[in-house]
Amino acid sequence: MRQRSRQALIISVAVIALAFIVSSLINRGICSYYGYQTDRETKYAAFVGCMVKVSGNWVLRSELRAVQ
User: Would you state the pLDDT for residue 62?
Assistant: First the structure.
């Protein structure tokens, strides 16, 4: 029984890690596409989000209206 629960734990951790990686790739793609649409320089920072370069400074995309 121990080995079966250990295998289930390993599979669960692998699924969670895979979901995190896929989510990160999707968010990077969305950020890059936003930069393509608006003709701005963008970058994706892990655990922060999509950053947009405005007047030489990097600003979160979600806070962009407050800066403009």
Answer: 87
